[in-house]
Amino acid sequence: MDRLEKREAVASLASVFAETSIVVVTRNAGLTVAEVSELRRRMREAGVTYKVAKNRLARLALKGTRFDGISPLLQGPTALVWAKDPVAAAKTTVEFAKTNEKLEIVGGALGAQTLNAEGIKALAELPSIEALRAKLLGLLVSPATRLAGVLQAPAGQVARVLQAYAKKGEAA
Question: What DSSP character marks residue 47?
Answer without folding.
Answer: T
